[in-house]
Amino acid sequence: MSDTASDAVGTALGLGDAGAGRTASGAGPLLSARGLHVTFPGRRGAPPARAVDGVDLDIGPGEIVALVGESGCGKTTLARSLLGLVRPTSGAVAFEGEPLSYSAGALKAYRKRAQLVLQDPSGSLNPRHTVYDAVAEGLRIHGYAGDERAAVAGALARAGLRPPERFFLRYPHELSGGQRQRVVIAGALVLEPELIVADEPVASLDASVRGEILALLLRLRDELGLSALVVTHDLGLAWNIADRVAVMYLGRVVETGTVESVLTRPQHPYTQALLSVLPESGDTPVVLTGEPPDPSRIPSGCRFHARCQILASGEAAPVAHRCRDELLPILSGGGEQAVACHWATREGVRG
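The line above is the sequence of ABC transporter ATP-binding protein; the predicted structure tokens follow.
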């Protein structure tokens, strides 16, 4: 992507310098994953599906990390494994330096500190429960001993539903899509977590409401010091909200770094292809060829080589044999910019 086109991405999306100045915290990671693998058995004799196939990832205190990739690349499985909802086949997850334990009691305590916000608020909320009961559910599960009404009101207010008492007795069908998503966010906030994992948090919302929810997440980070992992296929959303971005393809992170470095100077051909389809980029859209990713048939060498536009063009001929045969290492989960690409690292990009 050219420098002019790179600037145009932020400007045309109305972002300006939205990402400028946001850097990862210098403190140790709040949540970290090392060598994470999640494998599911194949059906009817098919090979097992390697949904997450070796991932290192860190999320610092007060940091927002965007996990980006097309459908089926393993984003949601990775997010759920970080929350203890899916037990990894191998590898480890640690929270504040302590390995995650999978006993019932340990997971219950952990889920009070790390909460999930799902994509579809209509599916997340029980249509027979009032807003009050939906938000209070977490408090009741965890045996909250304080003032439940005050806690629910505070969570709704922080989520932007004011005055909160007006919403106590409403049902989900009486709310707009944006209001329902705010109720889901309030249900996560009521337990005062340190980390939120938001899986496509605005995908089901109208464009006019998306900005409000993104602004809310940023405000919660600033006011409460919340960390967040935002799972998305939307690179514009990543630019708007994230400090750091990790691009995932076929079970593994293939490029990572600050949002500015990755989205304005993409090094991996897959990241370049994702960005090229944005009208604001000014680039000719890259149409990926070949079969969609299949986690049960991960190719040798670079897992993207069968669809790589640079390899197909012949430009990467000097390293073509490495692309097809030589396995790339797992990228570091920290804040430094890194790319898993034989061609990019040949050109002197730090990997």
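Note on the example: The two ends are 19 Å apart (CA to CA). The longest helix spans residues 207-224.
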